[in-house]
What we know:
23% strand
Amino acid sequence: RLCQLTAEVLECDCSHTFLWQPQEQGYVAVASWGDSADQQETLAALTIPPEAIADLVQHLEKEEVVQRAASDPRGLFPSVLLRHMEVTVLLGMALRRGEHIIGVQTAGYRGRTRPFTSQQHRIALGIAQIASIALHNARLLEQAESANRLKSEFLATLSHEVRTPLNIILGYNEILLDEEVSHPTTEQAKILRRIRDNTRGLVELMTTMLDVSRLEAGRLLIEARHIQIADLLREVETETRDLREKTNLQFFWRIASQLPPLYTDPPKLKIVLKNLIGNALKFTPQGSVTVEAHAHGTGVEICIADTGIGIAPASLPVIFEPFRQVTDTSRPSQGGVGLGLYIVRRLLELLGGTITVESTVGCGSTFRVWLPFERAADALPQ
Ligand code: ADP
């Protein structure tokens, strides 16, 4: 983009970005505009040693922008470069990081021998400055992304390692709670159940963190197959029974009959639906929760509607972001870490679906999940 802009703004034939590459101890063309496929190939194989452009760098230190005709005997640009680029006049601009020159942005004419005008010179000066900032930002972004990857890997390892002992605690806890094996007193059983519930909460948190780090590291594989939506929703109904029975809410399932089969990854879709149902139950002190599925366009729409506390309009855009919860003194704290809806959104992206939400404070919320019945063969990884 930088090379294209340079060539367009300076109205010349080609532009190249050469950057110092420490591992190769030379300057390498990292981008180009206006080259033929052959020229790109030869340029890609070229590493310019520092001594070959020492003069050029010295000039750029003082002047920021320099130009030379290929025929000029006071050649500043290495002849091998001019030959490869087939240019007749070449303009070089300093690319800097702080005080140091880290590369050269070029602009070249092919065939034309008239030099760049002083106005073009001034524009080139501006390009050099903006390009230096843009390259610096790109580098910072690269470093941030690499740090983020490290963080995700660390989280994945940590949550995996912590889950194992937690599951062992749960196992021993079950034995101690077993009336026939351990004969706990009522008081002991009460404490043991508290240990069990808290440990389960931790296992759930660790599993969520593991899912998030896998999602962010792009390591969550999608395994799609054809399923009947009604069957999947029946399974979700069974698997959320415990959760539902802890509330006094009414629960409605309205599944349209004769829905076409859905090509999707069933466990991932279940995570999505269970998260949304779990939230609906968590944030609805009284009334009902309704799960409804019907055909919508070329896919299925699954709505999870509740008559709960609702979400203020200002909070709606942020609830799908990681670690975001609606903080409002009037809302009772419900635990959680604010990762559920983020996972929902990311999983739906992977499944080729979408999610929207409508909500009115004090009346309730409706989350609408849409998924295509079929996806192009290459859209869902196998
Ligand atoms: P968590 O439930 O762990 O806090 P989520 O990402 O699942 O995190 O949800 C983010 C926030 O969105 C919740 O903390 C809650 O404030 C709000 N929210 C989600 N679902 C509902 C709902 N059905 N009704 C009201 N608020 C909700």
